[in-house]
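Sample A.
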Amino acid sequence: MNILHDNLTRLASRHQDLAAAVKYAVGGTLTIEPSRSGVPSARRSGRWIHSAYDPLREAQTWADTHAASCRPGEMVVVAGVGLLYHVEALRRKLAPDVSLAVLIPNLDEFHDALAARSLEAWSESILWLPGAPAEIAETLTKIGRPIRCLSYTPATLADAEFHRAVEDALRQGIARQTGGQLTIALVGPIYGGSLPITGYVKRALETLGHKVQWIDHSVHAASYEAMGSLKDQRNRQMMQGRMAEVMSQWTLASLAESPPDLVLSMAQAPMTLQVLEHLRKKKFLTAMWFVENYRHLTYWQQLAPGYEFWFVFQQGACLDAFRQAGARQVNYLPMAADPDLHCPMSLSEEDRRRFGSDVSFVGAGYANRRRLFPSLLHQPWSFKLWGNEWDGAEELRSVLQLDGARIDTATCMKVFNATAINLNVHSTTGAGLDPQADFVNPRTFELAACGAFQLVDHRSQLRQFFTEQQMVSFQDFGEVPGLVQQWLNEPAARQAMANAARAHVLSEHTYVHRMRDLLGHIGLSQPDRVGSVLRGERQQEALVKRCADDRPLESLLKDCPSGQRIELKDVAARIRSKGPTATLKREELMVLMLDEYRSETRDLL
């Protein structure tokens, strides 16, 4: 009892409210047992949190591993309480100018820790963080320091949801920081469904103020497709594979021209594992947004170890599969809409006649759609089918538009806006609806952003995004004719639901939201690189303020444009603009020397 009293007294000197709350907590969450080395150890729900042999040595090993990554001026946030051996070891290992905070998800566990061992003077410098995840994230964000998150895994398992919520709130806080401009190389595919999404991502990143270099491989699509005409499958695969390797090397050469802060690839971007590993050795940050069903396209299995960050639109088994394949960091990032393109349109009577119908579907002729859609023929309402890859679907030829030609985004938007009820059936290779309905396709968000009414096959994630008042779903395709007839007879209710879905997409589900989320993940993981830029530490004003005691350097930076990010190459370029006969100051010569060194060492090839 004296240990608890002494610890609470020490805690109350800086955290009076927390000390009072812990005093009246009941405890009993941890089972305290002596370790072989003689100091207390603990179990929770039968699972050891600290070593049963030597908790102090275990904690020191953990601290030694993580302290090397911590930087001066950072706020290091530790998840996992237990008996706090790891926190003590880390605090003693870190420099004084590195702040340390500890998340407190469970006051009873913290009570047990304070009753088990004396925390001594080291604990007085710790920022203890109880409360709701959003409140904790707000507290940390207001501190204004770079945040680095560490996890003592054995002590976090029982409160995994709490720690996940804190990380999400922190990521969102970082994503809202718009003080800095990143340089992002966006690597697109040769062709396919992720090609237009690459354009949406580019616009979103530019809207957020970042500089985007689009490495557009679609300019090579005709040559790639021409190789597909080779009849010998071995020759065809060999030639297309070699072309993909050349484009991967071309990407490398493009990056060497102006090295970015982040290389962001979209699904099916022609990047080989060899090139990705080379970029990693050169300290480039790489990420992939895999906007494909991981079960159908499996090339990710070979590339998983190559990217530093993976983002996928499926959860659960998908995340586990990527980790097992070697992905270092994999995060969930669902699809979205681009409201600049996916939006309501005023159509002429001619366009409404040409593109409109009671019911329509836009998409490729996957096996399940070929099997399901004939039941929509010979109904008392009109049905139009748009899209390509419908060869051989003779039953549907009477409703297939433009003779099965691929339609562009502009035509697609006209169809969405002119149609009373848009049908949205996710693709699968089976005969019916997708039995593993664990993702929501882009079309769901795009239709909603257009203010277009849709009937969508039910997805396990659908209600994460849209309520029953915003979108109608069905679990059996046999329901569709009845739902169509019902909603055709209720145009006002149909429009109200479509309007509600559009408002919701604009508030939460655009590509701007997704790119904020993606950069927030990376910024939280890389506080001294991406995070520092997002916080605005590379902007002219921030740099001038930081070098206020260095007059020569301050004068150089003041000559740079305000409100912009400034790098060494920018300062060097301004110095060189003075001409070859200009008399340069000592600090200007040093900047030029450093920039020459940078140029010589950036060679990627």
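Sample B.
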Amino acid sequence: MNSKTNRLSGELPKIGIRPTIDGRRNGVRESLEDQTMNMAKSAAEFLETNLRHADGSEVECIIADTCIGGVAEAAECAEKFRREGVGVSLTVTPCWCYGSETIDMDPHLPKAIWGFNGTERPGAVYLAAALAGHNQKGLPAFSIYGRDVQDSDDNSIPDDVREKLLRFGRAGLAVATMKGKSYLSMGAVSMGIAGSIVDTNFFEEYLGLRCEFIDMTEFTRRVNEDIFDPEEFKKALSWVKKNCPEGKDYNPQGQQKTREEKDQDWEFVVKMALIARDLMIGNEKLADIGFGEEALGHNAIVGGFQGQRQWTDHFPNGDFMEAILCSSFDWNGIRQPFMLATENDSLNGVAMLFGHLLTGSAQVFSDVRTYWSSDAVKRVTGHTLTGEAANGFIHLINSGPSALDGSGQQSIDGKPAMKSWWEINPKEVDLCLENTSWGPAITEYFRGGGFSSTYKTVGQMPITLSRINIVKGIGPVLQIAEGQTVELPDDVHSILDERTNPTWPTTWFVPRLTGEGAFRDVYSVMANWGANHGAFSYGHVGADLITLASMLRIPVCMHNVPGENVYRPSAWAAFGMDEEGSDYRACDSYGPLY
């Protein structure tokens, strides 16, 4: 794959490698040139081999033209990075260098320093001196220093250094990728949901995103005036008829739509999906049919659709649109999933975006709906919970749509997964489709009709639930809960699922408990969750989320990530000995990134 897969305006960010060196000539610098530049080349090769952009493109590293021994060469490197579109900065060195003369001074680039742990030259001394300079100047940087001493001619990258390089690289690329893109608000506030009140200051100051707003009547206009690719619509509708079977209609007999009405709804919701995608990223085919302005789109890396209630009281809901766009495939085949938040919950949309940029996989938007204790399950179903579910679980369910990847029908090493989209194979697409039905909307809830993605997530899948909240007096905070999905016996699942809306996608989630604080038990996780929504990503990616949040100056108010995996800029250690408090104080002191 290459950068042509990038569907948004702007080049993909690159990682800049800065080899710094002892500037003293006549023997010292000359003896270190090859070792220092080789260290840069080794880091670049490792990162390019092991990282990908969320759109599947390979990551490119840019190395400074020369080693950096002083301010003049630092300036030349900075200019090259600007020309080349570098969005992440990594300094590497095996030796002592002149600290504040050689550091990266760009305040917006995520930055790290890898100081080689060797005895021949004091790389660790430079690392400490340079980090002190960064901290004194208010330019936080991440420290990378191997645990074990290496020989000077050892060009290998130790495992602990590799882990930090990748964690820094993934998070840094996420920060750089967001910058200059848009959040597209399709509609306004849904049912008073706080995250649906789009806070432009948050998006602009913390994420570098601009906010774009349209009214939902734009969908009506484009449907009525045929502002979509007519050939793609035919293709999409044919694919839907073949691959998207309707589920049971739970509406009372007198309130069910006729076959003709349902067929009309299918045509409408397929058009909605085409239109939402075109609104986000544009579509050159629209220019061919006379709609040049509409062809441009809003350069939206993430968006949200209000839906309820002004839209759904009259028109078919956005469930199909949201579910299929958030999936890693559609009628055009396997492709990068879109991040489209239900009910225009922009803050949950950001959590989805974070997870996607870090993993390249689809993200599942959910209501954090119900805590089921073992006693309650026993009372309602007669079933005794065992295993991972023995202490109860949380019902994650969306009000109609979730990405079909969330069914858990993909696999890694024979275990259920939600894979990076470029790793998915056609058989896994078929399995996701086969295990999803589309329940006609309950008209008591969605008066205009529509169809919801209906599935239950398979068990034994590691996932990370996360959420951004905005708290007056603090600003944005991030919540993280790593855990796994569990599978219930079919009869138990049906009893519990049908107590709410059985046409909606369901995931039974057990967070990993620590016995303390918000993770004392499953009930405490539910009780401490800060909103009605959350987004989950495949795998335990909480450590990457913490690193990303620190780059953006967003404190983490709740997590169950092991302490040894928490990785933040070195300056955080100067804000107190309690990690959570120091995170808050550091984020408050440095303020939003932009």
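B remarks: The chain has a mean pLDDT of 96. The chain has 18 helices and 22 strands.
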